[in-house]
């Protein structure tokens, strides 16, 4: 079972959640326009496979990206450790002005938690990442995640146009 990257994207783009989502093979593309008070932002989202065998394909999707979302499962310490490696890779090889968000997914499974919220928050703060606990299943913080990325992008890049 994965971290829930595809489920987060489907919740944001289509407002849907499926209990048994197939693992992503390679990458899937989604688009969604988000209206913010100062602008409308078009998110072009590449949902990349998390399995190690697809790791070498990832740079094709994040090079030149304005934002990246790294997702881990709060019930799986290994997923948190893999998430840290993705953050390091993005920091080394990604766009220097890229905003990176770390998402602790599956907050609806609190009774099975092994990665404490404080641990994720601390890592995010130390690495200058946005941080959210979310649940694709319940939709907790999913839209907020994308709103925050959009607002951060507008603020940092001082954009005033109507669509990005």
UniProtKB/TrEMBL annotation:
Kindly list the GO molecular function terms attached to this UniProt entry: GTP binding; GTPase activity
Question: Is the keyword Cytoplasm assigned to this protein?
Answer: no
Checking InterPro entries in the record gives: P-loop_NTPase (IPR027417), Small_GTP-bd (IPR005225), Small_GTPase (IPR001806)
Keywords attached to this Swiss-Prot or TrEMBL record, sorted alphabetically, are: Nucleotide-binding
Which Pfam families does the entry link to?
Answer: Ras
User: PROSITE patterns under this entry?
Assistant: RAB, RAS
Identification of the protein by name: OLC1v1037284C2
